[in-house]
């Protein structure tokens, strides 16, 4: 069995198309979420630096910008974890189904 035949069977697989579509949609949604968060933070830095530089409460040196910046980083880690969790679950399952289907054919 030649490789081009295997590749063609994979591309023709409904499960492969489902995998590609779901993974692409999910990655796009997560990417847009991260993009909106980062752009919003940069716009906040550009247009409201005084607000970001305001201390959280009187007598502290911790400003509003510090927890917001840490939050941006933590959200990115969290969304990466969400992607990995789904990739190791649903996407791996779909991938294994495609491999089994191609091997049987």
UniProtKB/TrEMBL annotation:
Record-linked Pfam families: DUF485 (PF04341)
Please list every transmembrane segment annotated in the UniProt record, as residue ranges.
26-52, 64-85
UniProt GO cellular component terms: plasma membrane
Transcription regulation is among the record's keywords:
no
Q: InterPro entries given for it?
A: DUF485, Inner_membrane_assoc
Enumerate the UniProt keywords alphabetically. Answer: Membrane, Transmembrane, Transmembrane helix
PANTHER family, alphabetized: INNER MEMBRANE PROTEIN YJCH (PTHR38598:SF1)
Q: Report what the protein is called.
A: Putative membrane protein
Organism annotation? Buttiauxella noackiae ATCC 51607
């Amino acid at each position: 069995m030649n490789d081009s035949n295997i590749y063609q069977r994979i591309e023709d697989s409904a499960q492969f198309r489902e995998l590609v579509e779901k993974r692409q949609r999910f990655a796009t949604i997560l990417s847009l979420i991260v993009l909106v968060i980062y752009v919003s933070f940069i716009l906040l830095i550009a247009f409201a630096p005084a607000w970001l530089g305001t201390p959280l409460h009187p007598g502290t040196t911790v400003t509003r910008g510090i927890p917001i910046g840490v939050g941006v980083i933590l959200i990115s880690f969290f969304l990466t974890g969400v992607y990995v969790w789904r990739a190791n679950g649903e996407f791996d399952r779909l991938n294994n189904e495609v491999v089994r289907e191609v091997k049987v054919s």
